[in-house]
Write a sequence for this structure.
């Protein structure tokens, strides 16, 4: 990695950071800012940086609505913004979240734009760019932050789901949230289907 830069939720700051690297680096990875709220500026910034207008992906919007319904999350009209991409971009599916990523090839550089949550970002990047696990890495870490469910109920639900899976599970109560950490061996990561199924389960009463 040649350079790592942190930007504020500011379109011009993100544009400047990306434009400086175009043509200089083979791969530019941008993480975060793909949500539906007003402070999510990344897609607008990338569109401005590469000079391509944002376009709605109708099929992607349908899939986002299905994913939100599967997760039991209310679909607001603002979520439609998550289905907008710079013209000519390749959409990167997000099977564990609601924010798809996208990639573009500009001036000899490949720009890969991904959501911020690490578990989503790593999975999408490895699939998009065929990046293998880091040499010597002994484990894979997955994190989920849940709200509206007691720690005891989360523990029962998660332990039942991962019964028989080679992993360590840890819980952290940070009112009103419960943070779940699942650790697997590096050579036995959770499958995409396991991540999809886990994201779709609902606590029983």
């Amino acid at each position: 990695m040649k350079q790592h830069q942190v930007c504020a939720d500011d379109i011009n700051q993100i544009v400047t950071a990306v434009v400086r690297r175009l043509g200089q680096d083979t791969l530019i990875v941008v993480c975060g800012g793909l949500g539906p709220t007003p402070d999510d500026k990344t897609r607008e910034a990338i569109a401005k940086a590469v000079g391509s207008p944002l376009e709605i992906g109708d099929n992607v919007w349908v899939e986002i609505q299905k994913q939100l319904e599967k997760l039991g999350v209310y679909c607001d009209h603002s979520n439609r913004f998550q289905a907008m991409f710079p013209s000519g971009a390749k959409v990167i599916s997000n099977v564990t979240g609601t924010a798809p990523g996208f990639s573009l090839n500009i001036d000899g550089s490949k720009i890969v734009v991904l959501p911020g949550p690490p578990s989503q970002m790593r999975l999408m990047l490895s699939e998009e760019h065929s990046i293998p696990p880091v040499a010597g890495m002994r484990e894979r870490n997955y994190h989920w932050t849940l709200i509206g469910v007691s720690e005891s109920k989360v523990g029962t639900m998660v332990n039942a789901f991962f019964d028989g899976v080679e992993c360590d599970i840890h819980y952290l109560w940070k009112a009103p949230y419960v943070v779940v950490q699942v650790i697997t061996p590096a050579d036995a990561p959770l499958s995409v289907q396991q991540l999809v199924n886990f994201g779709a389960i609902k606590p029983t009463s």
User: Anything to note?
Assistant: Strands lie at 27-31, 54-56, 84-86, 90-92, 101-106, 109-114, 139-147, 168-174, 177-185.
